[in-house]
Design brief:
The complex is a heterodimer of chains A (about 260) and B (about 425).
Chain A (H helix, E strand, L loop, with lengths): L5 H6 L6 E4 L1 H6 L1 H16 L4 E2 L10 H6 L2 H17 L4 E4 L2 H10 L8 E4 H10 L15 E4 L13 H8 L4 E2 L30 H11 L4 E4 L2 H13 L7 E4 H6 L4
Parallel strand pairs in A: 1-2, 1-3, 3-4, 5-6, 5-7, 7-8
Chain B lengths: L3 H28 L11 H13 L8 H30 L6 H4 L1 H29 L4 H4 L6 H25 L21 H25 L7 H10 L13 H11 L27 H9 L5 H5 L1 H4 L6 H22 L9 H5 L2 H5 L6 H5 L6 H16 L4 H13 L12 H7 L1
Helix pairs in contact in B: 1-8, 1-14, 2-9, 3-5, 5-7, 7-8, 9-11, 11-14, 14-18
The complex binds iron/sulfur cluster (SF4) (2 copies).
The site of one iron/sulfur cluster has 16 residues of chain B, from helix 13, helix 17 and helix 18.
Chain lengths: ~260, ~425
C-alpha cells in the first residue's frame, strides 16, 4: 500500500482529488496513528486519489489560538496557507475536528480557501454512493454502540448526523447518552486543556463523561476526534473497564467492517 | 377638582418615563464604552434570528415544559400591555374604559382574553416561585446567585403576581361590567357596598398602573432587562459557525510583515497603534460583549451545561456575565461621579474574573449553545485569555512548553518533525 505525499505527486506532475490533512495527534500520538492508518486503508481500498503533506504539514495552531497565543496561531496559519496555496489545494479531508474547524472556518479570512470535509462526512458520502462495501455480518452487528459528540464537530459546526449515519450502516444498536448532540458533554480536551492539568475541582471532565458513556451499557464508545478518543480511553482505563469496553474511532469501526 | 386625578396621573407617568429614559441612556453609554465591532451585515438572517430566538424563544424549547410556562408569562405580559394602553388613555382623559363603546362585543371578548392570560401568568409565576425556592434546582441554588440576584428573581415574580391580582380585582369590583374570569371572584365582595366597590376598583386601578411604572424603573437594575435586550441581542448574534474565533487583523498583519517585509507599510502608515492585545477590562471588550452582560437573565443554563462547572471547577459562564455587568456598572458610576473615567486601579481581569476561572474553559461552546438570549460567555473568556498570554506572558508551564513545541517542532508535543509521516512509511512497507 502506498501513501503518497503532495511533493511526490507534484514531482510526477499529478494532482490528487483530495488532500488528507492528518493533524498532529494523527501523526504523532500512538493511539491516534491507528485511526490515521484505518482511514488511509479505507481511502486506498476505495481507490481515492489522495495525498498527505507528510513532513511539510504543521500544527494548524488551534491549541495556540484557544489558549490565547494569537501570534503563534497566526504564524502557523501563515505557513500552512502558503504551503496549501502553493500546492493549489482545493479539497481537504481531515480526521481531526479541531483541524477541521480551523481549516474550514478560520483560514479563509487569512487567505486559505478550501473545501474542507471531516472524515465522518466523507465516509458517509462514500457509503451513500455505494463505494464503501461493508461485510454482511460485521463484527459490530447488533452490538451496543454509544457515540460521543465532539464539541468541534457538533456545536461548533453542526455535524451531528454524519457520524450517526455511518454507525447505522454497521447495523449496530445505537444508544444515546442523555447529554448528546447539541447537549453533548465535552471530553475535557478542548481549549488547549489537553496540554495541561485540569484546574482544581471534584473530578476530571473525562471521568464524568466516561461514567455517562459506561452507564449506557454500550460495549463500544465511538468517537470522531483523536483527542476525545484519548480522553475517553483514559477514562475507561481509570474505571478499569478496558476489557469490556472499547473506544474506537468511526474510521476504525468502518475499516474493521470492510467487505 | 375633577381634574386632580388626571393631573396626578400625568405627573406620575412623566416622572416614571423621565427616570426610565435617564437610566436607559446611561446603559446605552455604558454599552458603547466597549470597542467597536461591525455587526450590521446580513440583515435578513439577523431578522430571522430575532423572530426565532427572541420572539419564538427557540432555545427555551430545549425543555418544552419550562418553555411553555415561560411563554405564558412572556405572551401574557406583552398582550396584557395592550390593556395598559387603555389604562393610560383613561388616566390621561379621565375616562372609564375608553375602548368599551367603540369596540362593543369585541371589547368584552378582549378583556375576557386578557383576564384569562392574567390568571395564566399568575399561576405560572407561583409555579416558578416554588421551582426557584422549594425545588432546589442546582442552577438556582448555586452560589452565583447569592445575595441580591436571588432576591431580584423573586421580586420580579412577586411583582407580577401582585400586578395580575390587581388587574383581576379591579375588573371584579367594576359594577358597570362583568367579565368571565373575574366574575368568579365576585362572591368575595358580596358584602361590600357600591361605594366601597368603586373605591376598591379605583385603588386597584391606581396601584396597578403605579406598579407598572415602578416595574419599568426596576427593569434596568434587574436581570429582567432581558425582556428588552433579548431582541437586539438576537439581532446582533454571531452568524458564523460557533467554532470560529474572532480574528485579530493587527497580529495577522504583524506576522505577515515579519514574513514578507516587502509588504510592510512605510512612513506614516507604519506607525503601530498602541492597542493592547486581548481584553483586560470592559473597555477592551466589544460593545456586543457588554450588551450581552446587560442581557443576561442569570438563568444559569450555561453553567448547568459547562463541563468545567459540572466537575467542580471555579469557572461558571453565568458568573462571567454577571461579573462583567458588575464591573461595567462600577465603571459607569465612576464616570457619573468624575465626568470621565478615573482610574480606580481595578480591572475586570483579576478584580472580578480570576485566572483560575479562565484557565478551566475547554472552549466547548456548551454555554453559547444553551443561552436563550444569544450570549457568548466564551467570547469574553478567550479575549481575557489573549491578554494573559500576549500582554503578560502569563501561562501555565505546560502551555509554555506546548507553545515552544509548536514553534520549534510544529506540533504541540516535543517530537521530531521528521517523524510526522512515520505512520505512512510504516504503511508503505
Ligand atoms: S465554552 Fe468554556 S465556559 Fe462555556 S461551557 Fe464550555 S467550558 Fe464552560
Ligand atoms: S449567559 Fe445566557 S444561559 Fe447563561 S445565565 Fe445568562 S442568559 Fe442564562
Amino acid at each position: 500500500m502506498k501513501v503518497n505525499t503532495m511533493a511526490e505527486l507534484m514531482a510526477k506532475g499529478e494532482t490528487p482529488e483530495v488532500l488528507f490533512w492528518v493533524g498532529c495527534a494523527g501523526s504523532f500520538d500512538v493511539r491516534a496513528q491507528k485511526i490515521t492508518k484505518a482511514f488511509a486503508t479505507i481511502l486506498n481500498k476505495v481507490n481515492i486519489n489522495y495525498a498527505i503533506l507528510g513532513k511539510e504539514e504543521m500544527c494548524t495552531g488551534d491549541p495556540a489560538r484557544r489558549s490565547g497565543n494569537e501570534f503563534l496561531f497566526q504564524m502557523m496559519a501563515y505557513n500552512n496557507i502558503q504551503l496549501l496555496n502553493g500546492y493549489g489545494i482545493k479539497k481537504i479531508v481531515t480526521t481531526c475536528p479541531h483541524c477541521f474547524n480551523t481549516l474550514k472556518n478560520e483560514y479563509p479570512e487569512l487567505g486559505g480557501h478550501y473545501e474542507v470535509i471531516h472524515h465522518t462526512t466523507f465516509l458517509q458520502q462514500l457509503i451513500d454512493e455505494g463505494k464503501i462495501k461493508l461485510k454482511e455480518a460485521g463484527s459490530f452487528k447488533g452490538k451496543k454502540i454509544s457515540y460521543h459528540d465532539s464539541c468541534y464537530l457538533g456545536r461548533s459546526n453542526n455535524i451531528y448526523e454524519a457520524p450517526r449515519k455511518v454507525l447505522e450502516a454497521l447495523d449496530a444498536e445505537l444508544i444515546e447518552m442523555k447529554r448528546c448532540r447539541s447537549n453533548g458533554l465535552c471530553c475535557g480536551a478542548g481549549g488547549a486543556q489537553m496540554f495541561k492539568e485540569d484546574e482544581k475541582g471534584n473530578t476530571r471532565i473525562n471521568i464524568e463523561r466516561t461514567e455517562e458513556a459506561l452507564g449506557t451499557g454500550a460495549s463500544v464508545i465511538a468517537a470522531a476526534c483523536p483527542f476525545c478518543n484519548t480522553m475517553m480511553t483514559d477514562g475507561v482505563k481509570n474505571k478499569e473497564k478496558e476489557k469490556e469496553v472499547q473506544v474506537l474511532d468511526i474510521a476504525e469501526l468502518i475499516e474493521q467492517s470492510l467487505a | 377638582m375633577q381634574y386632580i386625578p388626571q393631573v396626578l396621573f400625568i405627573l406620575v407617568s412623566g416622572i416614571a418615563i423621565y427616570l426610565f429614559a435617564g437610566k436607559v441612556s446611561e446603559i446605552r453609554r455604558n454599552i458603547f464604552l466597549g470597542r467597536d465591532e461591525d455587526l450590521n451585515n446580513h440583515s435578513s438572517q439577523r431578522w430571522k434570528n430575532v423572530l426565532l430566538l427572541a420572539f419564538g424563544q427557540k432555545k427555551m424549547f430545549k425543555n418544552p415544559l419550562v418553555a411553555i410556562l415561560h411563554f405564558i408569562i412572556y405572551g401574557g405580559f406583552i398582550i396584557i400591555n395592550i390593556e395598559v394602553l387603555e389604562i393610560v388613555m383613561d388616566g390621561l382623559l379621565g375616562t372609564h374604559r375608553l375602548f368599551e363603546k367603540p369596540l362593543g362585543e369585541v371589547y368584552i371578548w378582549l378583556i375576557n382574553a386578557f383576564e384569562f392570560l392574567a390568571a395564566g401568568v399568575l399561576i405560572v409565576c407561583v409555579i416558578f416561585l416554588i421551582r426557584r425556592n422549594v425545588l432546589k434546582l442546582k442552577r438556582f441554588t448555586s452560589k452565583d446567585l447569592n445575595g441580591w440576584p436571588r432576591s431580584d428573581a423573586n421580586y420580579i415574580l412577586i411583582t407580577e403576581i401582585i400586578l395580575m391580582s390587581l388587574f383581576l380585582v379591579m375588573n371584579t369590583c367594576d359594577s358597570t361590567q362583568s367579565f368571565f374570569f373575574s366574575s368568579f371572584l365576585k362572591p368575595l365582595f358580596n358584602n361590600f357596598s357600591e361605594h366601597s366597590l368603586v373605591l376598591i376598583e379605583k385603588t386597584c386601578w391606581w396601584l396597578h398602573i403605579v406598579g407598572i411604572f415602578a416595574f419599568l424603573n426596576y427593569l434596568p437594575y434587574s436581570k429582567h432587562l432581558h425582556i428588552i435586550l433579548a431582541f437586539p441581542n438576537a439581532y446582533y448574534a454571531k452568524l458564523e459557525p460557533q467554532g470560529k474565533m474572532h480574528n485579530m487583523p493587527e497580529i495577522q498583519n504583524e506576522v505577515l510583515y515579519a514574513m514578507q517585509p516587502e509588504l510592510a507599510p512605510t512612513g506614516d502608515a507604519a506607525q503601530t497603534h498602541a492597542n493592547k492585545f486581548g481584553a483586560k477590562d470592559v473597555f477592551d471588550l466589544s460593545w456586543k460583549n457588554l450588551m450581552d452582560a446587560y442581557s443576561c437573565t442569570e438563568c444559569g443554563r450555561c453553567t448547568a451545561a459547562c463541563p468545567a462547572n459540572i466537575t467542580g471547577k471555579l469557572l461558571s459562564p453565568r458568573s462571567i456575565m454577571m461579573k462583567t455587568r458588575d464591573r461595567l456598572e462600577e465603571v459607569g458610576k465612576n464616570i457619573d461621579l468624575n465626568k470621565a473615567f478615573k482610574d480606580d486601579n481595578k480591572s475586570l481581569l483579576r478584580d472580578y474574573i480570576s485566572e483560575e476561572e479562565l484557565r478551566a474553559c475547554t472552549t466547548c461552546n456548551a454555554c453559547v449553545e444553551q443561552c436563550p438570549v444569544s450570549i457568548s460567555p466564551l467570547d469574553i473568556i478567550t479575549q481575557l485569555r489573549r491578554y494573559l498570554i500576549m500582554e503578560e506572558s502569563n501561562a501555565p508551564q505546560e502551555w509554555n512548553a506546548m507553545f515552544s513545541n509548536i514553534e520549534n517542532n510544529f506540533a504541540p508535543w516535543k517530537l521530531a518533525p521528521d517523524e510526522r509521516d512515520k505512520w505512512a512509511i510504516e504503511m508503505n512497507n
